[in-house]
Fold this protein.
Amino acid sequence: MTKTCIFKNLYASLLPKQTKQICQFSTATSRRYSKKNADTKLIETSVRYNGVRIQMPPNKEWSNEQFESELLRLSEGWRERGARSAFLEIPIQMSHVIPVASKYGFQYHHARGQQAVLCKWLVENEENKIPNFSNHTVGVAGACYREDSNELLVVRDKGKFSHWWKFPGGYSDLGEYIGETATREVFEETGVRSEFKSILSFRQHHGVFYDQSDLYYICRLNPLTYELSPCPHEIEDCAWKNINELLNVDNTTPFVKMICRLMQHGQEVGFNEVDISEHDLENWARPGNRMKIFHRDIESHHD
């Protein structure tokens, strides 16, 4: 199992409610229990893979001395239980205790909104297996194609990249599927409404925003409207441009030209030969939840 999978399973297993007594139960894949002390105590929750989650009670003011004493009290039991990792959640208004946690080996893991999460690997003489948080960003662009005129919808951004024609796109929001990002970004940047058909291609790039890696998907979209209304804050210009024109101009990117060639190939042999299609599937690990699976159309390749 990869470090990323372990981390996702670890956080997926966190108990949603704090309880006053220790609750223990076992399944084929996990064993969890939770414990809540009085309001003057830190809240400790044990999770899968022998991880420990520590929270600070809400509406409680802590001095550095109180926090240090309570952290040491909890840590005494971690070794006895064989705990392997600890995650310490600190609200922004309690950030003065972070240097105390650092003194005992905690390091920043991530921060979001009003909370920082620190972590510590508890197993001596063993490689730290806590993965980095969100080491990839996900961007999506829409190649919105008019079959009647053989045109693609392209934009020029404001700023230093304004000389390039490219596909409208941007970062995916939390909880948003790839196709949803593509249609949203196209509408926000150009005013054109569209429907998602497939993924055409994607690229991976390292060392981007805050040294993260980046995945960027290009989706094939069918336009539902055609009138252009470019976003005045982000877009310098937008236009429907013929594929042959885009293939023969200098002010576009190799990625755009590659997508143009894919679109031409799809027109010649059928888009089932280039599409990476979206399929809805029940999440077998979390019954009742759905997921999106992307693959080539299997049936068409057996005909």
